[in-house]
Every structure is written in C-alpha cells, then in structure tokens.
C-alpha cells in the first residue's frame, strides 16, 4: 500500500479526535487551529537542564567548533544547490522526502517505518540541542513542545527571545548552530554503526548469494511483471552472481531496450524507460540489494536483525545529514539564515545586513522551488 493512504487515515483519526475533544485538550497545553496542532509543556525543561549542567563549558567549546563547521557546511550546501541548476531537469538535487511515499522527482524512497523513526531522531536531537546550548549560555527556555501541520510532525524549543536578542553574537551563533551540528553528529555516529554492522557483523554471519529485488517503483517498466523478493539470476543472458555483475550489466542498457530478466520465479521481458536521473540510461524501476544466506544456524534466525539495524542506521544517517545541512542554507527562517545575519552584523549595520540576508534568502528560495518543480516535471 502506498504510504499516502496511511497519512490520510492518520489525518482523519487525529483531526477527528482533536476537534471532538478540543476543549479538553486545550486544558492540557494543546492549541488546535486547523491545520496546526501545537502542544506545549514545561516538563522536559528539567531533563534538558540536567544534560546542559553536566558540562556547560564542554557544550560551549563543542558548539564553538560547531559554528565554524556550520559555516563550512553552509558554503558547501549553497554551492551544491546553485551548481545543480545546470542539470536540474536531468538530475534534480532538491526533492521532498516523505517516508513511505513515492514523491515524483525524488531520487530516493524512504521506507515508512525506518523513515518515521529516523525523522523522529532528527526532530528530537535538533530541538533538544537548541535547548541544551541555550541553557548552557544562561538563556532560559520558555517551553518545549510538539506540533502537527496536517499530518507532518514537528518539534520546537522556545528560548526566551528577548534574552537571546540581548546575548552576545557568539552566543546567538552557538544557539542557532546547535540543532544542525547535533544532527550531523548523530549522522556520524549512525554511519559508524552502519559500517560496523555491514562490514563485520553481516559478513561474519552471512554469505552473499545473488541480487534480490527490494522495491519495485510503481508505474515503472518493472511494475508490470517483477515483484519484491524475487532473486535476479540473469539479465539478457548475462549471469548475475553478485552486486558487481548487476552494476556492470544494468549500466549498459539504453531507453527503449527490450530486456529479459531471469529470476528464481521465471523469466520476464520489459521495455526500459528513461532513467529519471540520467535520460541516456535505461530505467528498470527497481531497487536491488545483495541477497544473503545464513552461513550457520548457531543463533537461529537472530542474525537477520543485523539487516534491520543496518537499514535503520542508514536512514538515521541519511535524514540527519541531509536535513541538518539543508537547515544551514543561508535562507531565513532556517538557522543558516539567522547565522549569516549574525555574522554580517559584526561589520555591517542593520540597514545593510538585513537587505543582504533578505535578498540572499529570496534567491535561495527561488532556486529551491524551481528545483522542486523541475523534479516533478
């Protein structure tokens, strides 16, 4: 089932309950104004303060380094977004990512379960880090909360805005950088765990045995005949014994080629389409992964959990890195826009740096919207 139907069901259930019990929920910190549900609480402030108080000096030093890393990431992301315009209609670099939903123009598909867990990690670590650094800089937190825009979840930490404006520029920079730096740090940790599992745990317990279809893209050439779970044994009489064979063979086809795919469930013919990311390559419409067999049964089926953990860490890494770095673009109201504004304020008066940041924000917004539309087209 397409994930969009799950979101539709969730939308109807959540908003049905919210509207029916609106008065009761309002007494427990909820604000319900369609299409936004917001819940504020002060209960987690003690937890965040406890983490902040473990070592305020460490958090300040760590985030001072994070500020420089953030500006470096801002430059890299800006260059990537701007330079991608050259190939925007063949290889879009900006896309909307919704777990469980195939978004037109998106080069990746995020599984529903893993995607929601990874997205939750992005939100929690991002907002909590803003709060931790704010408290380490003696800036009070007014409230912590969750929000829902239709069915799109979010989280927030509200520092005292007046105190934040009165703080030193270096303090503001650390607070603004905190969320994205935490996301990139979590991404690095997730990458380490993913590499440990994929490089050591899986090879120690499994033997590679061919290529398995892990997903079939809807309305693609493969969707008419191939199914998830099939083992690809050959493509046009080329034997597929592993990932190397598969990569070499798949890259040799052009759009319009009539290809026969041999699987463990029979042979199937399909006519290839244009690859969405490279119009000169043939497009099957499948995502394939290595097929493994247990090397021994000492622990029964338990080692199969390594694959679930590896995929989870993969998406925690991908979403935290991607969203964390995107948030550093010089575009208000993103944290990167606020950081650029504070940086320019060191040498420029408000009548100069405000128009500069606003102009850059407009240009970046136009590029992003254009890239999204191009991806859909």
Q: What would you note in describing this structure?
A:
With 377 residues, the protein is of the alpha+beta class. It folds into two domains: 3-197 and 314-376, no CATH class; 218-284, Roll (Pdz3 Domain), CATH 2.30.42. It contains eleven helices and twelve strands. It has helices at 3-20, 22-26, 45-54, 56-83, 112-136, 161-166, 169-205, 243-250, 305-326, 335-344, 350-376; strands spanning 30-33, 36-41, 141-149, 152-159, 206-216, 231-235, 238-239, 258-263, 266-271, 273-275, 278-283, 286-294. Strands 5, 6, 7, 8, 9 and 12 form a six-stranded antiparallel sheet that branches. It has a four-stranded antiparallel sheet with strand order 1-2-3-4. It has a two-stranded antiparallel sheet with strand order 10-11. Strand 1 (30-33) and strand 2 form a beta hairpin. The longest helix is centred in the middle third of the chain and has 37 residues, at 169-205. The chain is globular, with a radius of gyration of 24 Å. The model has no long low-confidence stretch (mean pLDDT 89).
What is the gist of this entry?
The protein is an alpha+beta fold and 377 residues long. It has helices at residues 3-20, 22-26, 45-54, 56-83, 112-136, 161-166, 169-205, 243-250, 305-326, 335-344, 350-376; strands at 30-33, 36-41, 141-149, 152-159, 206-216, 231-235, 238-239, 258-263, 266-271, 273-275, 278-283, 286-294.
